[in-house]
Design a protein that fits this description.
Length: 428
């Protein structure tokens, strides 16, 4: 069976709605730590996967999964120690009153449930998300994922807001009061909703602005924005699917970098190290209002196997000091990427924190004209050919995404930088 035959079988069996990374799709068969292997035995350094957050096939996580799968798997309508213990452990990582954890299976489900809870708790319906957002794929959350709707009209309960893009946005680095200026746009979006007869329930924010190409917002932006949202009677929902779980270094959560406490936090990808696991974390007061009206049941959300996996992932992060690793190796990675950026005009801006970085690639550093997404795809394909996996993101598809497992080492950084040096030299 050649890979071309497998591609054709896949297209028939799964249909045409799926895409591949890289011009030559990879057929991966094995993973361990930060490495993956293809069907020919070729090894790749994984600089992309936040899902295998504590490293591919981590033995402690695999053992927890197999051990509980061998014993019992049920759901939340039976008592089980695992789900209670996992919810308590996860909540212990949260600040403030964020102490109630509702397990689900995906980031989409988490965001869907968060909006339902916020709508019941506020008695309002309107939502605000950033332009070019991605929050998931259910019918409701698809509406909140403006990057995926390719010009379909917004529902009238939704308003978008320009993300805090100080590189290409309307207010740029060097100007005064950037945080207040970008937050003023949130206030305008609230007014737009109100003019259409919708009061604000949810301001959903992803504090890495990953889908927009990674942004470091002005330090006071989220505090100003949250004040507008709460004054209008809405809730702040932090989508931490990308930015949570130590990804940005220094803190467990991306929003902590901005010193705010959201009303609801949604989680997904890295929680299960590849096992489907997500959660909504909120305050007792908010969830009480929801429970006065509705029961919540999710057949697979919070099953004892998934809970064992979630618990094991947190144990690995704590026992292997992966938050400190993300901070320290992340600082080294930043330094090395900055040196690269100083040498290649094509790198217009380096943005990110911890182990989550974006290289904004431009055809002209003065005009900041993005390179085409096809050009970046050629570059990432070239890196993959050399055994280094990175990806693409951003409004223009021109930002190289670097987001390795949290166990990434300094040696891994050196390997990545050598590979990028080679591909940028070839692309120039
Ligand atoms: C910021 C963000 N939120 C939510 C989701 C949806 O998560 P899932 O694919 O687990 O449904 C994603 C997925 O890429 C995401 O990046």
């Amino acid at each position: 069976m050649t890979n071309q035959q497998l591609i054709e079988r896949r297209r028939k069996a799964l249909g045409p709605a799926y895409s591949h990374f890289y011009d030559k799709p990879l057929h991966l068969v094995k993973g361990q730590g930060v490495w993956m292997w293809d069907d020919q035995g070729k090894r790749y350094l994984d600089c992309y996967n936040n899902v295998a957050s504590v490293g591919h096939c981590h033995p402690h996580v695999v053992e927890a999964l197999c051990g509980q799968a061998r014993t019992l798997n049920t759901h939340t309508r039976y008592l089980h120690e695992n789900v209670v213990g996992f919810a308590e452990t996860l909540a212990s990582k949260m600040p403030g009153e964020l102490s109630v954890c509702m397990p689900v299976c995906t980031g989409t489900e988490a965001n869907d449930l968060a909006v339902q809870i916020a709508r019941v708790a506020t008695g309002r319906h309107g939502c605000i998300v950033a332009e070019h957002s991605y929050h998931g794929n259910s019918t409701l959350v698809h509406d909140l994922s403006t990057s995926e709707r390719f010009g379909d009209p917004d529902p009238d309960w939704l308003a978008t807001v320009e993300p805090p893009d100080t590189y290409r946005g309307p207010f740029r680095e060097g100007e005064n009061d950037l945080g207040a200026k970008y937050a003023g746009l949130v206030s305008k979006s609230i007014q737009k909703l109100e003019a259409r007869g919708h009061q604000l329930a949810v301001f959903m924010v992803e504090s890495a602005w990953e889908n927009q190409g990674i942004m470091q917002a002005p330090q006071d932006y989220l505090n100003h924005a949250a004040a507008f949202v709460r004054d209008a009677g809405g809730l702040v929902v932090a989508d931490e699917v990308q930015s949570g779980y130590c990804r940005m270094g220094a803190h467990w959560w991306g929003f902590k970098h901005y010193d705010i406490i959201p009303d609801i936090v949604t989680l997904g990808k890295p929680m299960g190290n590849g096992h489907p696991l997500g959660a909504v974390v909120t305050t007792p007061a908010i969830v009480e209002k929801f429970a006065e009206r509705y029961e919540y049941f999710n057949t697979f959300g919070g099953n004892p196997v998934s809970a064992a996996v979630g618990q094991a992932v947190i144990e690995v992060i704590d026992n292997e000091n992966l938050l400190a690793n993300a901070t320290e190796v992340g600082a080294y990675l930043e330094g090395q990427l900055q040196e690269l950026a100083d040498r290649y005009d094509m790198i217009g801006e380096l943005r990110g924190r911890g182990l989550f970085w974006g290289l904004d690639l431009v055809s002209d550093p003065d005009t900041r004209e993005p390179i085409s997404k096809e050009e970046l795809r050629r570059i990432t394909t070239d890196a993959a050919k050399q055994g280094t996996l990175v990806a693409t993101m951003g409004r223009y598809g021109n930002v190289m995404k670097i987001r390795p497992p949290l166990v990434f080492s300094r040696d891994n950084v050196d390997h990545l930088i050598n590979a990028l040096d080679t591909v940028f030299a070839r692309a120039n």
